[in-house]
């Protein structure tokens, strides 16, 4: 029997769990694309839990629950930019990212956005390409004493887009 997946809005009490999920996702899932120094610098973004909580609270953040436990989250900035999309390593490949992205795109469209953008990690690049996002620019982001590459992508939201498919 497959686990039940549901989405709900972010709550302030989620911050510690989502910070740990963020770190685990980076450290366990991005090793083929980023070295250990890059992973550690990236994961350190959640070290200041208050700042991480403020970032989540300042955006439209949804939490995916799998059998009642947080399995991932997405944060939509300014109704047009997927700022954060992370899935717990134990839930990778189970449709959590797809469900979160479907919801973020539907919310963006419902709030009048004509397109959604994302700065996709090399690990997430294929996921977003399969969803119809087009690469526009390669970015090199300075983090601590290293650089992290990602790709700026954009997806136009048409009449048939952003409708969850189940």
UniProtKB/TrEMBL annotation:
Residues 5-158 form the N-acetyltransferase domain. GO terms for molecular function: acyltransferase activity, transferring groups other than amino-acyl groups. InterPro entries: Acyl_CoA_acyltransferase, GNAT_dom, N-acetyltrans/Recomb-assoc. It holds the Pfam family Acetyltransf_10. It comes from the Bacteria. PANTHER family: ACETYLTRANSFERASE, ACETYLTRANSFERASE (GNAT) FAMILY PROTEIN. This is GNAT family N-acetyltransferase. It comes from Xanthobacter dioxanivorans.
């Amino acid at each position: 029997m497959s686990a039940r997946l549901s989405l709900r809005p972010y709550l302030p009490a989620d911050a510690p769990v989502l910070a740990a999920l963020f770190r685990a996702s980076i450290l366990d899932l991005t090793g083929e694309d980023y070295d250990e120094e890059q992973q550690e610098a990236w994961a350190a973004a959640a070290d200041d839990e208050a700042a991480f909580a403020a970032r989540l609270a300042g955006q439209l953040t949804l939490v995916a629950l799998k059998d009642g436990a947080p399995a991932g989250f997405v944060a939509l900035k300014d109704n047009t930019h997927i700022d954060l999309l992370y899935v717990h390593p134990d839930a990778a490949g189970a449709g959590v990212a797809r469900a979160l992205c479907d919801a973020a795109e539907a919310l963006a469209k419902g709030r009048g956005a004509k397109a959604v953008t994302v700065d996709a990690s090399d690990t997430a690049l294929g996921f977003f390409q399969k969803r119809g996002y087009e690469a526009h620019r390669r970015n090199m982001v300075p983090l601590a004493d290293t650089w992290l590459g990602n790709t700026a992508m954009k997806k136009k939201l048409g009449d048939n887009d952003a409708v969850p498919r189940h």
